[in-house]
Amino acid sequence: MRETRTARLLAARLYVCTDARRDRGDLEGFLHAVCAGGADVIQLRDKSIDADEEIAALELLGRVAAEYDALFAVNDRADIAALVGADVFHVGQHDLSPVQARRLLGPDVLIGRSTHDLGQATAALEDPDVDYFCTGPVWATPTKPGRPATGLEFVRAVAELTEARLDADPEVLPVPWFAIGGIDEPRLPQVLEAGARGVVVVRAVTEASDPRTAAGQLRGLLPA
Known about the structure:
Elements: H1 2-11, E1 14-18, H2 27-37, E2 41-44, H3 51-67, E3 71-75, H4 78-84, E4 88-91, H5 98-105, E5 110-115, H6 118-126, E6 132-135, H7 151-168, E7 177-180, H8 188-193, E8 199-201, H9 203-206, H10 211-221
Pfam families: TMP-TENI
GO molecular function, one term: thiamine-phosphate diphosphorylase activity
EC number: 2.5.1.3
């Protein structure tokens, strides 16, 4: 299972985060739309719902993601990740550490880490329990109120860091990473030019009138 998940992660380019869409009541249709549009990873991140609602939403996400060979991710709650059989578990800098999450979830669940500066990115890159990491927010975003933008220079620095690691040891396995924060279709070329190969998006898809088209357009601009 870990090998299959890792192969999908290495090929992933478009990572979508969504809430449970309680205000619209269209979670299932939305999930089908973004998966059909080309989302490779989908994370449910909604701190406004209770555990039972989150479990139900994640079970739905897991079923839909499996139909499209996409990965589904749980944010913060390792207990819920274990209950729903998550493919991916994502932690921030002040959540469970990756090694703590690994002890709870075992070897098959992929673990991601948020990073906001080069020191954190370096630590994530060197951590054997981190399977991927995210860098940002590149631009300030209301989904992370109060967190300052890291800018495109951080993306460039991480791209150089990861390339140097592979140059130093061509046999080392690459660690996927995704730029995150305020990224949409007009800004995507800047992020790619800075060296990112994958991105995490929220509002660019969740607030789109046609999520399938929005996801498809983004995926079409990303590298194969």
